Amino acid sequence: MRIWVDLTNTAHVLVLRPLVELLEADGHEVEITARPLSHTLELLDDWGHPYTALGHYGGVSRLGKARAAGGRVAEMLRFGRPRRFDAALAHGSTDLPVACRVLRVPNSTMFDYEWAVLQHHVICRLANRVLVPDAIPAERMARYGARPPKLIRYPGLKEEYYMADFEPDPAVLERLGVDRELPLCVVRTAPSYALYLGGSESALLPRLIRHVVEQEGAQAVVLARTPEQREDIRALGLDRVIVPDRAVDGRSLVAFADALVSAGGTMNREAAVLGTPVWSIFEGKLGAVDEMLASEGRLRFLSDPSEVKIERKPPGRVEQRVRRDPRDLLELALPWVPSARR
After folding, report:
1. DSSP structure class, residue 287
2. What domains lie within the chain, and their CATH numbers?
3. Residues 6+ apart with CB under 8 A from 305
4. CB 2, CB 28: distance < 8 Å
5. Count of alpha carbons within 13 Å of 196, Cβ hemisphere only?
6. How confident is the model over 77-132, as pLDDT tens digits?
7. Which H or E run contains 32?
8. Residue 325: is its pLDDT beyond 70?
9. What distance in Å separates the CA atoms of residue 292 and residue 322, rounded to the nearest whole number?
């Protein structure tokens, strides 16, 4: 069968890669489209899988986003119409369900944050199947038109599936020039382009980085999402602050870090799965997955930089609590596609 996979953000490359590889191992033909945003194309280049870049970043305003979305849907239709796909899959893509509804392609969408209201009103109604973690109550999804049997609530976190065979690579520390003798704090900036955050950047960030390097005596690797964010962080002029110019192996970096402070939901959950202490500076409405992790003591919320205390983890300690079979997730997402296990 011919399968269409659309990737619209950095994390989606990590989430869907094992599913794409399983589909191809089963003999299916997978074509990937990708939106040029943040480090999405860089991660695809690192993977080496062919893809077609469609669309452009529309800025932080609602009008700019709407124009960019409309233009990308038109590109998606031109891409998809001659290829006659049998099924399609995305994680949070607003564009794929629209194009697939027009082209009559059965499609599934996945996400794990339920308060991106405008986005979910579109994709949940147009997708044939909606997958979310079972931490999200079904009643929160009903408002978007996602009810069983369309709604599928899968066990655990998506990170437990795509990290099932993950082993951290210490080469990431060498490439970044991390001093192994010093504590390491990884900082992930906010997605200032996200509509559900209103385009705001955390006011805590400069104070936080100063606290990490000056009060905690640690080094910080700051993973910025945009060139503007990188420039702002470098302008602080702080020692022991590393700001990579391109995408890095974030999972390995988090695995070896002594602490993570992040506005990114996926990276926070990776840390929780790997046993790395994590503080969230996420500015949006709290989702059910984060509520669950906080109740289990695996995620803390930062209101003041002084709350961050960095203690060295035991050497070589990487604690991955749960590993789940990504094929289970694939079969829930695309029941119409033959699987090697069925």
Report:
1. P
2. 2-164+323-333 (3.40.50.2000), 171-307 (3.40.50.2000)
3. 204, 207, 208, 210, 211, 212
4. yes
5. 18
6. 999 999 999 999 999 999 999 999 999 999 999 999 999 999 999 999 999 999 99
7. strand 29-34
8. yes
9. 15
pLDDT in tens, 6-50: 999 999 999 999 999 999 999 999 999 999 977 899 999 999 999
Q: Residue 341 burial by CB count (10 A; 0-12/13-18/19+): exposed, middle or buried?
A: exposed
Interatomic CA distance for residues 5 and 337, integer angstroms: 13
Q: How far apart are the first and last CA of the chain?
A: 15
Name every residue whose Cβ is closer than 8 Å to that of residue 61 and which is 6 or more positions away in sequence.
199
Tokens in use for 42?
């860089």
d(CA 96, CA 89): 8
The pair of three-digit structure tokens given for residue 12, joined into one six-digit string: 């989606």
DSSP 143: T
* DSSP line for 127-171: -SEEEEETTS-HHHHHTTT--TTTEEEESS-HHHHHTTT----TH
pTM value is 0.90
d(CA 50, CA 312): 40
Query: At residue 202, does pLDDT exceed 60?
Result: no
From CA 123, how far away is CA 128, in angstroms rounded? Answer: 9
Per 3-state DSSP, the chain is made up of helix, strand and coil in percentages (nearest 5) of 40, 15, 45
For residue 133, how far is the Cα from the chain centroid?
Answer: 14
Copy the structure tokens of residue 9. Answer: 């953000």
- Neighbour count for residue 325 (Cβ, 10 Å): 14
Structure confidence at residue 149 as a pLDDT band (50, 70, 90): very high
Rounded to whole angstroms, the Cα distance separating 146 from 20 reads: 25
Task: Please tell me the distance from the alpha carbon of residue 224 to that of residue 56, in angstroms, as a whole number.
Answer: 19
